[in-house]
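Translate sequence into structure tokens.
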Amino acid sequence: MKLIIKTACTLLATSLLLTSCKKFDEVNVNPVAASGDQVQPEYFLNNSIIGAQQNPEVAERAFVLYWKTAGHQHSNGSFYSATYDDTFTTIYFNQVSGWLNSANTAISIAADKKASGTDAPYTNNVAQVARIWRAYLMSEMSDNFGPIPVLAFQSTNPDYNNVKDVYYYLLEELKDATSKIDVSVVNTDALKKLDPAYQYNYANWIRYANSMRMRLAMRLSEVDPAKAKTEFEAAAAGSNFISEKAETFEVQERPGWDNLTGVMSRDGNAQYISATLNNIYLGLGGVKSADQLDPKFLPFIKPANWLGLKLDDHFTSMTNNPSAGYWFDGLPETIDPRAYKTFIIPGDFENPNFSFFPIAQKDAITTVRKLNDKDNNVVKIIDAKFNWNASNTGDWGAKGTKNELRAYAGTMPRLSSKFRLSTNKRVFFAPWETYFLLAEAAERGWVTPVSGKAAYEAGIKSSFAYWEAEGLATYLTSEDFNRVGTSVSWDHITEPNSSHEMNYKDGYTDVAGVATVLYPKNDLYKKGTVKNDRLTKIITQKFIAQTPWLPLEAWNDQRRLGLPFFENPAIEIVLPNLPALNKSNYMESNVKFFPQRLRYPSGLRDTNAKGYEQALKALNGVDEVLTPLWWAQK
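Result follows.
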């Protein structure tokens, strides 16, 4: 058993991890266990699952500043504009390598116990569960970096494999592992406590594995459609997938500073609503704000065709964001019912979920801000209380330096405190994702156990149930377009006109006007010719439902399909890390305008030069943020 532990540590040091494996035995063995022959596979698997919840150090960097930013689940300018931090990446790379090491050690120990005849009745099942979990971790790592070693931690100095080989391996692993689980095995209470997700409910682990197979198969839809179809249909056959709330893969968070502390808990991040989400929410679903909010908000609700205050000197318009250049001085007439539950209305201090983060900044509760001129003289004072806006990221140039209204915590909707206090269960896979995957598969003409419409509406219902949102019947039949030209109703596939008229007021002179607002042209999807087909609806609803727990999947869908529509960063001043985006093409969409992956940590070149060179060859491109992965759009 000691040999297994030492071998795992050696492989970790030589193949992936960039830090020392000193005292590996101590940090990876359950505290109540001894060592050697008393080490159990379930201890290592438990450590892997708990570790992957991400302690605050890695969560703030990977989950929040990388995934939520790239997935447009909040507004943050750094990685959104391809700004990269090697320290952030090294922290995450080391952590995910460690989680993988623990999972594989569980598998190795189980095999060793079986060979020696010292295995328990449940040991084989634990090994198969560890294989399922390892497949998830490998997919997470590959979706961030691209090529990874398929045989890492398996008694060999691993070579780096291309993404296609990684995905083929994961799909086979999930299939094989589920076939070898014996659901009749009876667990001890002690064992159940060592599985923070399912308490070793093997039927649920099989459901999770099949839903994961569907997720990974769909990732190949654009580059390997035959393989995607075959694998998806096999995983979906029999309907033995996550379809009910009780089957959700989720892990309880807890306050403090350890691996189970909430991934969105760090109080320095405001986590504002993104412009992407806001444009999707606005007008979507036909459910009125007046029917969602307390009567105190009624005087602040604006008509459906209201655009806001036009503030040309202080708000950028150098982006394809259809709301750019305007400040919405009130609340929308209609909005997706999940918006007010996910994000808090500025100034609504009576809301029990009002977020006072960032707690170190008084700006968190300051709604009154100034707009200044070039000499810093006050041009206008605006009270953002009960207003609903999202700030476009990018470089606002001089307009940004004069603007105290955007990017101040008190002035924009930001993530509800219910996600900031480490009291939730972190969701890894929920029923709504299964249903939206089934809806997409049906729309592609694949064999599914449910129709596309039924799956689509079931996904929306599942999400509404999670949020305890009202207005479902109205929502499902709504034919109203949101700001990007998409409606909810499955049967409504009429395309919007290229533009529509909205009323506004000059923010400086109060003179009323009428603006012709373009629905954005998403060149990444069907060359910008389609805004309201069924696949756009499916991914739009999936994007809303995955917020805020699954930003990596939101990023994956956008890289794979170009959906939903992601607005470009503003370029009042051209962004150095997005050289292809300029003042002649900012109204277009292009993969070169969005981050595509994480670069490998700089230390990998020193610790594993051979592996790094293999990774670059397998990547089919340079080790840069803008290099697309195999399954993504090029």
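Note: The first strand starts at residue 249 and ends at 252.
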